[in-house]
């Protein structure tokens, strides 16, 4: 009889009746298979069994089964739901067969089978993954908004802290979360999960090895903090044009578990330790390829919401029936109840929820096998994730989630890392060494220090170009480290050497470094270094004597007199590049021929350019110079990126104001494209720079090179207490925090701090601390810290005036003011500046408007001779906080 909850509207409902029979093992021996479709139900039977088949169907589909016999031929049909005047039926056909049912295979799909075979206890499970493949961890939730992506990111971060490499896959093809978190760090992903699926779908080899190798090669440019990022799509357009989905692979492949296999093999090719996949929420074919694979480490995340709990129980029951882990190598699932307030952790509600989930997971529970159950706290800060990876991780660390889910490390087959400690020399020698080292570091033009700090932008640059030569524009203000980084790259002579020193691992992109243009302010040692590397590279390539920067500058200046369009300028730049490495000097068309020569000779080259402000001093008003810059910054990189085999890379260091003057359209888009490599210093990175300088000076016992990049702002602040004390006074004084005061005092009102200002400050503070006998608990003393700031400010003002004409003019007007007018806070009328001039100051972080009055940060105030008014005297920290609120 038809089950009471089924109504026979279509063939789908007719098929559902047979599926219920299959589940109940009420399958007659004579019945070989059944196939339903819109035009009829076909029954495969053993010869001579049509009459038993008719009787069985009558019993199964009562009261809707009908049979009619005419001339010894019987016809059968099932009456479907109909209106009285228009009866609808589904014909039944019988087909005699001697075939044997195939060995049933476990299939990770919710789709109905095309043919219903008799039930079998011997269901073929997928082959065990080889032990050399990394484990595949799939995060899933029945309901969205429960913290699935957050917990996946937290586990990825924990693994990197344990010195593990991770492949992080955003498999949520409808609402990508991981892709969004990494969008700023990876604005132009080299490859996506959608690409991977399409490549595997079209790969003729059974193991899709060609597709795996290609995607692995491209992912070498998507390594961020030891995590390879495979986003859902390369652009937002992918959402509306996805042609190949996970279920297409499962349905079309001989191996229904191909999704797990290709992800594990991709991880193996990348030599990662763990593959983490963030799946689409809900019960759909987008996720079942992994959650119905018993070999996958499945993590189910739910909140205390009744809908989320009910759905998760349904998932566990489904897995217990369709994809039960039976082999010793197949893990039990892990359960996470998230967003539980701390005060509710031990409540009956939580206990009852955990009990219900474990009851649903009973099929997995045995003496040696038990699901991992974790309860994580509620955190307001995680309800809406910030738009950057760094901010997300900071919030995750602050939420306590990582401490709770560290249990997953024991669940996974991974190994933990170890720590190392170092000794430090005496106090006086530390002060002297810090003084000398920081003095060498103040000006990059000296090129006397070979060590360098792999800051986040440089690590991004190196990680993104581990397999392909870099083609990038690196933006930074004066003092941000452009020339210093330029010299460090040149000093290492090959891209591979620099990328490795910038903490990139397994670098396979090895190209010779060739400096084309450099700053005219380089000291003799730095000039010698650039000339030596330029000649050495030309010799290694087998070319003639390279033309020096002076000749190249003259060639570019000549072009500025010819009114060239951007295409002509692109060719001129390419020729200059060729001549600068000694290839066909003075030959027209040498640039285009160079790439062909390099490709044929299997040689690779990276051009490095700095000092554009020396060459284009009228960039703000000269259209010819702007065109030349636009061609260099846009046309040349685009042309190089299209070359087969990418034999020629380029790194262009440029000031932000120069770029904005040259790129009039889509400047924001271009800035966003290269944003991960921009030389910016926020508070945390500034503290990291201080810590790095103390490392070189061999001071601060609790800062270790292998941990420096992983230290948070809180960690760095604590680690730097031996440098400058906890406060600008004794620890019990009411003086402000030393670390916060220094960073606030040296920052502008856009939240930026320049590396040169910070290093100069360390030099002066150490210099004036050397002979102090009072303060024995710190290296730089409070008096020296405060005393170093005025000189830092004065030198910063002088340097800005050299490079920024607009600010130079406004600064000159401010200096001409009488002492009575140079007081903070002030109004625009007080300082007699136009609205345009005030905007120049605001855009450059020199002032901030607060309640109709302007304030100025210490790094500008002291150098410009402004004083603070006595009433309500604004302290350094207060001003910095006001700026933070504005930004």
SSE blueprint:
Elements: H1 11-23, E1 31-37, E2 40-45, H2 50-60, E3 65-70, E4 73-83, E5 86-96, E6 136-140, H3 148-161, E7 166-171, H4 178-181, H5 193-201, H6 209-219, E8 223-224, E9 227-230, H7 246-252, H8 258-270, E10 274-279, H9 285-291, E11 297-302, H10 306-322, E12 334-340, H11 348-360, E13 372-377, H12 389-399, H13 401-405, H14 407-411, H15 427-442, H16 456-464, E14 471-475, H17 482-492, H18 495-501, E15 512-517, H19 524-541, H20 549-560, H21 566-580, H22 590-601, E16 605-609, H23 612-615, H24 623-641, E17 648-654, H25 656-662, H26 667-673, H27 683-696, H28 713-719, H29 721-724, H30 738-746, H31 755-767, H32 782-803, H33 805-816, E18 823-824, H34 828-831, H35 835-843, E19 848-850, E20 853-855, H36 858-864, E21 867-868, H37 876-886
Parallel strand pairs: 2-5, 6-10, 6-11, 7-9, 7-10, 11-12, 12-13, 14-17, 15-16, 16-17, 18-21
Antiparallel strand pairs: 1-2, 3-4, 4-5, 8-9, 19-20
Helix pairs in contact: 3-12, 5-6, 6-8, 10-11, 15-31, 20-21, 21-22, 21-24, 24-25, 27-28, 27-31, 30-32, 30-37, 31-32, 32-33, 32-36
Walk me through what this model shows.
By secondary structure, this protein is α/β, with parallel strands linked by helices. The chain is 44% helix and 13% strand. The chain has 37 helices and 21 strands. An eight-stranded mixed sheet has the order 8-9-7-10-6-11-12-13, sandwiched between helices. It has a five-stranded mixed sheet with strand order 1-2-5-4-3, covered by helices on one side. The protein has a four-stranded parallel sheet with strand order 14-17-16-15, sandwiched between helices. Helix 21 crosses helix 24 (623-641). The longest helix has 22 residues, at 782-803. It is elongated, with a radius of gyration of 34 Å.
């Amino acid at each position: 009889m038809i089950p009471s909850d089924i109504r026979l509207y279509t063939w789908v409902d007719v098929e559902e009746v047979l599926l219920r029979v299959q589940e109940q093992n009420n399958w007659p021996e004579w019945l070989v298979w059944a196939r339903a479709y819109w035009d009829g139900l076909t029954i495969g039977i053993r010869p001579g069994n049509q009459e038993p088949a008719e009787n069985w169907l009558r019993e199964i589909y009562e009261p809707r089964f009908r049979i009619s016999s005419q001339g010894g031929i019987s016809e059968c049909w099932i009456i479907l739901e109909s209106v009285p005047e228009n009866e609808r039926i589904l014909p039944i056909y019988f087909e005699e067969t001697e075939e044997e049912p195939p060995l049933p295979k476990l299939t990770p799909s919710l789709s109905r089978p095309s043919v219903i075979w008799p039930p079998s206890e011997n269901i073929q499970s997928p082959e065990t993954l080889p032990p050399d493949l990394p484990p595949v961890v799939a995060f899933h939730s029945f309901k969205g908004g429960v913290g699935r992506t957050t917990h996946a990111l937290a586990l990825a971060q924990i693994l990197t802290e344990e010195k593990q490499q991770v492949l992080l896959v955003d498999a949520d093809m409808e609402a990508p979360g991981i892709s969004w978190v990494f969008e700023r760090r990876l604005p132009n992903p080299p490859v996506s999960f959608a690409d991977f699926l399409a490549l595997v779908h079209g790969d003729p080899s059974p193991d899709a090895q060609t597709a795996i190798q290609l995607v692995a090669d491209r992912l070498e440019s998507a390594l961020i903090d030891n995590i390879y990022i495979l986003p859902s799509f390369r652009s937002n357009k992918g959402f509306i044009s996805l042609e190949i989905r996970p279920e297409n692979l499962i349905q079309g492949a001989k191996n229904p578990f191909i999704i797990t296999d290709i992800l594990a093999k991709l991880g193996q090719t990348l030599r990662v330790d763990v593959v983490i996949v963030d799946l689409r929420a809900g019960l759909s074919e987008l996720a079942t390829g992994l959650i119905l694979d018993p070999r996958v480490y499945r993590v189910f995340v739910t909140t205390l919401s009744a809908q989320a709990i009910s759905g998760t129980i349904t998932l566990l029951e489904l897995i217990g029936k369709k994809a039960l882990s039976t082999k010793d190598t197949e893990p039990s699932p892990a359960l996470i109840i998230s967003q539980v307030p701390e005060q509710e952790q031990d409540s009956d509600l939580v206990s009852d929820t955990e009990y219900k989930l474990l009851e649903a997971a009973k099929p997995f529970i045995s003496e040696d096998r038990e699901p991992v159950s974790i309860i994580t706290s509620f955190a307001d800060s995680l309800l809406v994730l910030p738009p950057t990876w760094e901010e997300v991780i900071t919030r995750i660390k602050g939420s306590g989630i990582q401490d709770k889910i560290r249990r997953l490390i024991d669940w996974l087959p991974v190994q933990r890392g170890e720590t190392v400690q170092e000794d430090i020399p005496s106090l006086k020698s530390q002060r002297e060494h810090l003084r000398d080292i920081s003095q060498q570091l103040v000006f990059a033009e000296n090129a006397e220090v070979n060590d360098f700090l792999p800051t986040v932008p440089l690590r991004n640059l190196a990680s993104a170009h581990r397999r392909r030569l870099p083609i990038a524009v690196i933006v930074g203000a004066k003092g941000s480290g452009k020339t210093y980084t330029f010299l460090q790259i040149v000093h290492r002579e090959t891209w591979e050497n620099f990328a490795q020193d910038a903490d990139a691992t397994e670098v396979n992109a090895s190209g010779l470094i060739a400096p084309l243009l450099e700053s005219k302010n380089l000291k003799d040692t730095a000039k010698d270094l650039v000339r030596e590397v330029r000649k050495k590279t030309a010799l290694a390539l087998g070319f003639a004597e390279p033309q020096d920067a002076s000749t190249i500058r003259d060639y570019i200046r000549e072009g500025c007199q010819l009114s060239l369009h951007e295409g002509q300028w692109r060719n001129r730049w390419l020729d200059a590049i060729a001549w600068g490495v000694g290839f066909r000097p003075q030959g027209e068309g040498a640039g285009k021929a160079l790439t062909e020569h390099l490709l044929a000779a299997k040689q690779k080259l990276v051009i490095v350019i700095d000092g554009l402000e020396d060459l284009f001093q009228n960039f703000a008003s000269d259209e010819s110079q702007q065109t030349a810059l636009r061609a260099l910054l846009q046309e040349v990189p685009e042309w190089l990126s299209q070359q087969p085999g990418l034999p020629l890379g380029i790194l262009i260091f440029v000031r932000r104001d120069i770029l904005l003057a040259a790129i009039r359209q889509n400047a924001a888009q271009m800035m966003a494209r290269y944003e991960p490599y921009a030389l910016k210093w926020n508070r945390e990175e500034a503290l990291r720079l201080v810590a790095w300088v103390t490392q070189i000076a061999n001071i601060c016992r609790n800062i270790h090179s292998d941990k420096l990049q992983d230290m948070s702002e809180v960690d760095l602040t604590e680690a730097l207490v031996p440098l400058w004390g906890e406060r600008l006074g004794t620890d019990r004084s009411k003086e402000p925090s030393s670390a916060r005061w220094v960073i606030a005092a040296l920052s502008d009102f856009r939240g930026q701090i320049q590396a040169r200002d910070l290093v100069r400050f360390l030099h002066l503070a150490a210099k004036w601390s050397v002979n102090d006998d009072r303060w024995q608990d710190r290296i730089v003393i409070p008096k020296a810290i405060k005393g170093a700031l005025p000189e830092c400010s004065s030198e910063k003002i002088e340097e800005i005036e050299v490079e920024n004409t607009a600010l130079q003019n406004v600064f000159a007007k401010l200096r001409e003011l009488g002492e009575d007018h140079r007081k903070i806070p002030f109004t625009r009328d007080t300082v007699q500046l136009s609205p345009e001039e005030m905007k120049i100051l605001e855009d450059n972080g020199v002032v901030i408007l607060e309640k109709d009055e302007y304030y100025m940060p210490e790094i500008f105030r002291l150098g410009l001779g402004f004083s603070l008014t006595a009433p309500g005297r604004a302290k350094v920290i207060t001003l910095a906080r006001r700026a933070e609120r504005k930004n």
